[in-house]
Each structure stands twice: as structure tokens, then as C-alpha cells.
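Consider the following input, taken from an annotated entry for ITB1 protein (Oreocharis arfaki).
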Amino acid sequence: CTGNGICKCRVCECFPNFTGSACDCSLDTTPCMASNGQICNGRGTCECGTCNCTDPKFQGPTCEMCQTCLGVCAEHKDCVQCRAFDKGEKKETCSQECMHFNMTRVESRDKLPQPGQPDPLSHCKEKDVDDCWFYFTYSVNSNGEASVHVVE
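Applying the prediction step yields:
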């Protein structure tokens, strides 16, 4: 019974939190917990303490790795550019497409939020339509509200 139960008459009687004919299936979902607090990042099922990713784009032990997904910075670059500087690909559609985050302007890069705060934080360095670098941070709080700080 793989040490997780007692064999009685050639049948395993499993200890709590274990199941299966050989008690080899853990019901503990802790190993399946993704960094966002969801089981298998909401993109899979936890089976015997292991994630079975149901979204084919996602893989890894907690279905958080996505090789083909745009990074947070690239994904939000156009919206930050139009909101902060009134230019870029989404300039004409900015008010329809890019109001999903709170934006704060800061004077310099050292005024950007730093890692160590409770919300996950991405530091971004992207090129604008004029081939100039601009810097911003993107974070999402526990209520799912997105916040951007951009260097003027």
C-alpha cells in the first residue's frame, strides 16, 4: 500500500488523504497550487497531487509556463503608450481598449514601485513608435485590479 495504508485481505485500506488500489494517489492539492493561489493556475485539474494541464498552451508542474504567450510587458505596451504618451498603435482606440488599469505617472525610474510589495510586479522596458525606450511597472492586486506606474 506504498506506506499510505494497511493491507487487509489483499486489499489496501488507505490512510486519510490517500486513495487508489495501492493508496498511491494523494488527495493533497498543495503541490498543484499555482503562485496566484489557484489550483493548476485555473488551467488544469489536480490528480493525485499532480497537475494535468487541460489548456494545451500551458505546461509545467502548476500549468503556469506558457512558451507562446506574450509577456506582461509586451501585452500591455500599446495601452501604456497611448494612455501615457498619446501615441502608438492603439492611439485611436485607447479609450475603448485601454482603460482596464489604473495609471500613475512617476518622475524617474527610481520612483517606480520596487519588488517586495505584496502584489506580483513586472518591471518593463519597451520601445515606443519613435524607437525610444519607455519604462513602466504592471501589477495586479488581490482584487484583480491592475495598476501601471509609468516614467514620464
